[in-house]
Amino acid sequence: MFQRGPARLFKRMSKRTSRIPEGSNTTSQPSHQRESQQQPILEAQHQVETHPTWLPKLPPSQPLPEEETEDYDDALKGAMRELRNDFTSGARQLAESALDRLAYVTDIAACMATSWGEFWALMVYAAKQFSRARPSMSAAITACLLRALERIARTWNEEHAKGIQSTVELARIAGGVFNAIVRERKELSGQLGTTFTSWLKRYYNEVLQHPLRFDQVGRAELPQTPVRILTLSNSSTIRAAILHAISSLPSVAIHLTVLESRPRCEGADMAAQIYASAHHKHRLSINIIPDCAVGTASRDIDFVLLGADCISSTGDVSNKIGSLAATLCAKSYNKNVAVVALSDVEKIAAPGQDSKHIERHPPSELTSAWAPATRNQLEGKAHVDVFGEWFEWVPANLIDVYITEKGILNKEDVDELAKEIAELDKYIFQQKKD
């Protein structure tokens, strides 16, 4: 889990900017151990390291077992199938699903492993497979699982120093780590919501100067001048942030324009969920529009709020199709409009792993809304293509601010985080220690 992982980036960031909250956790290194006649499978770190000092010592590399693996293989295939076919969850939710499935597979692996190294190999292999299940959302899945494995290895080192060696005990320790991470992830939405609310309060008080009243852009007559936000798709991160802002800023009204986000119209789903959960509906106005009306709708907004399925090491943001059009239209009407990327830090991909993968969906996703005669004329015909891409990239030069649970980041911060996850990937997934 990143919160318990390396703190070196945030130490560097706090020296050059006050935008990042202080108090990020640091991780102490395992104490030195005296050598024994029997070489331990897990060792504490020595003074001379062949890997970055913030990483824990890993079990020795061992091949996967070749016999009696049916239960493990079946569980792995079933989990992969579920992850690949989940087109409802966003990147954060999918990462949590992958973590839950890794915990399940870990229990099975514990029953078949004959050594610590073999147990570790089974866990790492499953995590690698899960990270590849949905390439368009692999950044969040990969970071979540890598940091879980890093934390498990660190805890194993600490417990091994106390004499714990059995596979049963290792499985218990791993299960405890998984449960702790799940609990901590539930707090992350609150942390991100707090960061977003602080930014919004400052933006509202210091930047916004439009004279429109709420009744001019919304539906109800209110004394507040609203913040006019354009967003799209169904992001759990955005939902939580908007609800947090409404409840925390009693002097602020929000006018939310939401693209319906075809073909599955998850933007409308998000609007419904926000409206149902808001406790201060008198300060919330929602306008749901078809995607094709983004040009008209973006004329009178203050900022574009984007979720992220992936953020490249250079700061490009991958999000639901329509994000680029919303950004360009808003910027063309008003160069002062802010484009905000709201994201967990785990969605930042390592350099070279943000391969701009194009996820394509079947034509039926779009054609199901057509008249039967139209479908019959066009579906499956030669030289007739139906657009099936769900995600697109918004270039970094169009993004004004990255808001995360760790604070407000700039592009240099994004690059540093990308390099850290690259080190972790190289060390755990690729087993390269030099």
UniProtKB/TrEMBL annotation:
UniProt biased composition (Basic residues): 9-18
Span list, region Disordered: 1-70
Gene Ontology terms, MF aspect: S-methyl-5-thioribose-1-phosphate isomerase activity
Family the UniProt entry places it in: Belongs to the eIF-2B alpha/beta/delta subunits family.
Name of the protein this chain belongs to: Nagb/rpia/CoA transferase-like protein
InterPro entries with a match to the protein in the record: IF-2B-related, IF_2B-like_C, NagB/RpiA_transferase-like
Organism: Neocucurbitaria cava
Biased composition (Polar residues): 23-40
